[in-house]
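Entry:
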Amino acid sequence: MNYSEYDAADLAADPSFRAWVLEGRTDAARFWERWLATHPEKEYVVMEAKMMVQALQFKTDEASAEEMASIKAQIDRLLDDTPVKKNSGYQQRRWFYAAAAAATAAILILAGSWYFRKPAAPAMAIVQTKFGETKIVQLPDGSIVQLNANSTLSYPLEWKKENVRMVTLDGEAYFNVTKSPPQLHPKFRVQMPQAVIEVKGTAFNVYNRHETIKVLLEEGKIVVNDSLDMQPGDMMSIAGGKHQWIHEDPLQLTAWKRHRLVYKDFPLSRIAQDLKDIYGYHIQFGSKKLEGLLFTGSCSTEDPSLLLSAIAAVHQLKMKKKDSMIVFE
């Protein structure tokens, strides 16, 4: 997503930007502070977008492009009415912050009347899985989502023809999307902080944990962040606002769907992270050297203790286990 081409209205409508301004979420704050540091010329645009978001912070649904444009026009008019003398960048910045406060207060009047004539936000369904649990979810359009352990899927309970079919994912899921269902919008999107996936009726796996997204396309076609086309068999990783094509065994990536844990030459640190994500285990190693040891093996997701025992046996390690705490030495 090329945010450098966004104007204030575009930024104000972006879910990640809004999460930064209104919720102060750590992942969003880290991304936008880093982005602003590399794009200092966008400081005024970001400030204007913040004003727009803060002025509308009590809205419960997303603003349309026309409504955002109206708010932006009001801000522009207020700021343009304030005389600006040719002076230093520091003085310009002081003027901008002072004018911003007045503009935000004035826009609240418009936003207040807007709020009372807007319809209520749609009711949302939120599906969560526990550690070690998976679920099959059927969406209102007939699409099927297989949700992995320790994951959350949310979506509107009622889908309308005029609205893009949209779901939000935190964790991991496999999607089998219905293509162009009758009486519903033809587009389907999966929304996450670092990526938006637009679906063309297809089957794909999405992993979204630890500020890293991995996408495996098995059937059909998807577009990531409006510009990255994926074809069947493609795998992509997105982290820190950057993407890269990856080459992993797709059967390993989707083994959880078949209720299997499958590893081939994986470092123990990576396996430990998976077991924490899926089962809530906290695994510690007696030394850094042990974390880098490689392991190949497989077991049922119903009994991860077999995997732990296999790791200990293969590398001749001592394993101490108490509840969810496991130590390898």
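The two ends are 45 Å apart (CA to CA).
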